[in-house]
Design a protein that fits this description.
elongated, 177 residues, alpha+beta
């Protein structure tokens, strides 16, 4: 599904950042756009920055289900700083909180959490209902090999008598003096 990403540019609150860029909303089914101005309120401007495809995969349904059960179901928008005409580039949008977390690991991308619209929530939920299969928990069985039958260290030819097998190094030092 094509998903338009709305990015807000507002004045920075510190002297080190002139502008603050944040993803504020998504537009499901949007046409392609490149930094089209949507709304202006003084110095704060909202842009339809880009339209990216929102792809859902059958193997990721557990992640989508996790995102849908959150207090506010969200889309995660991944942004990257660039040195082009616009200082921010929209990389992708995903419904998977697990994939979004992977992008936060490097620290080079900005990941914004944007609430899903009701229609988008219904679309993702329908996909999950269609393809999700719960994994059955299977308890691992222990090996039947008996490891208590072998005494490690016993039988070492360097040890003179059986009493020395469990002797501490301090005891051995006292015997040598």
């Amino acid at each position: 599904m094509p998903l338009g990403v709305v990015v807000r540019r507002s004045p920075g609150v510190t002297r080190w950042a002139s502008w603050n860029w944040t993803a504020t909303s998504v537009l499901p089914g949007a046409a392609s756009a490149s930094w089209r101005e949507l709304r202006r309120d003084g110095d704060t401007v909202e842009f339809h920055a880009a339209t990216v495809p929102l792809e859902l995969h059958g193997a990721e349904t557990e992640a989508y289900l996790h995102g849908l059960t959150a207090a506010v179901p969200s889309i995660y928008v991944v942004l990257r700083e660039t040195s082009g005409e616009w200082p921010i580039e929209v990389l992708l949008a995903t419904a998977s909180p697990y994939e979004a977390q992977d992008y936060t690991d490097s620290g080079e991308e900005i990941v914004e959490k944007v609430p899903m619209t009701r229609g988008l929530t219904a679309w993702v939920r329908e996909f999950v209902d269609m393809f999700h299969e719960d994994e059955v928990f299977v308890k691992r069985k222990r090996d039947k090999a008996r490891i208590d039958l072998k005494d490690d260290g016993i039988g070492d030819p360097r040890i003179g008598k059986p009493a020395d097998v469990y002797a501490s190094p301090a005891l051995k030092r006292r015997r040598l003096q």
